Amino acid sequence: MLPAVELTLDKGESVYTQSGGMTWMTDGFSMETNTKGGFLKGLARSFSGDSIFMATYKADKDNEKITFASSVPGEIKPLMIDSEHEYIAQKGSFLCAEEGVHLKSVFTKSFFSGLAGGEGFVLQELSGSGTAFLELDGSLKEIALAPGEKIKVDSGNVAFFEKSVSYSIETVKGFKNMLFGGEGLFLTVLEGPGTVWLQTMSISELASRIRRFIPTQTSNS
Question: Is the model's pTM score more than 0.85?
Answer without folding.
Answer: no
